[in-house]
Design goal:
By secondary structure, the protein is an alpha/beta fold. The chain has helices spanning 2-7, 48-86, 90-103, 118-133, 151-168, 225-235; strands at 12-19, 22-33, 36-46, 108-109, 137-140, 145-146, 173-180, 186-192, 239-244, 250-256. Strands 4, 5, 6, 7, 8, 9 and 10 form a seven-stranded mixed sheet that branches. The longest helix has 39 residues, at 48-86. It starts with a helix and ends in a 16-residue tail after the last strand.
Length: 272
């Protein structure tokens, strides 16, 4: 963090630092006069909104690619139905429609009618659409219920789902449980069937700069998402923890207390 940046005697070049919930780009260089070091110069540039915009742009590009692929898939399905009808096989056409109808849902499991917050429902649909194109299934647990959303919930949900999808890879499964009702703590639980996180490493996962993403993952904000989640949970008098999932991978659970759903002045963040 910032304290280490000030106290450590080392050169720093474009290093990401999380201060509160702000994402800063730090540089540290020596100031010399006549070949003698007289001071250390530290510069900090706020990149919170920039990195949020980059992640949002990446998500929009992925969603656009997903919709393009789905449109192509839908066109192929229509051609099959048309062919069956022209061949005088209406029963086969009906059976085909029923088969693709069940498997064509982007988000499986519990109905999105359980999520009354439109922004959170849209986030889940977008994440599920992108995940499906990567061969990952996102399931909404039927016990979920959301009557009251908020920016903190969007940020936590987006980062936990991204982390799980990255962890499982093609053919993986992610199960999301979320409960957010007025007057009660918010609970977000994301299970996956990936490789999991060793017990010895679990205490480090929420540290800045620690990431379990594959090397071919996106370059923006690596090792920042889960650290940000932990800081939001702390601000909301809650907690973030990791355990073994019933699916065999990792379970990340975040509880947000009933504190005000607003970051301190100057520390607002965008959901991924």
């Amino acid at each position: 963090g910032l304290l280490a940046l000030v106290t450590e005697n080392r050169r720093v070049e474009d290093e990401l630092v999380l201060s509160g919930e702000r994402l800063l780009l730090a540089n540290r260089t020596a100031a010399e006069v006549n070949g003698r070091r007289v001071a250390e110069v530290i510069t900090l540039r706020d990149r919170t909104e920039l990195f949020g915009a980059i992640r949002e742009l990446d998500s929009q590009r992925s969603l656009t690619d997903t919709l393009r692929a789905q449109a192509h898939e839908f066109s192929n399905h229509l051609h099959v139905i048309q062919g069956l009808v022209e061949l005088g096989r209406p029963d086969d056409a009906v059976a085909f429609i029923e088969r693709i109808g069940g498997g064509g849902r982007v988000l499986s499991g519990g109905s999105l009618s359980l999520v009354h917050d439109p922004t959170l429902a849209a986030l889940l649909l977008a994440k599920a659409a992108v995940a499906r194109e990567r061969g990952v299934t996102i399931t909404l647990d039927a016990s979920s219920e959301v009557t009251d959303g908020g920016d903190d919930l969007l940020t936590v949900m987006g980062n936990l789902v991204d982390n799980a999808v990255d962890a499982v890879g093609h053919g993986g499964q992610v199960v999301v449980h979320v409960r957010s009702t007025p007057g009660l703590p918010v609970v977000v639980r994301v299970d996956d069937d990936g490789p999991g996180i060793p017990v010895a490493d679990r205490s480090k996962v929420f540290d800045v700069g620690v990431t379990a993403k594959r090397e071919d993952g996106g370059p923006h904000g690596r090792g920042i998402g889960l650290a940000l989640v932990a800081r939001i949970a702390h601000r909301r008098d809650g907690h973030a923890q990791i355990s073994r999932s019933p699916l065999g991978g990792a379970r990340l659970e975040v509880v947000l207390g009933t504190a005000d759903d607003r970051a301190p002045a100057g520390e607002s963040v965008r959901a991924p």
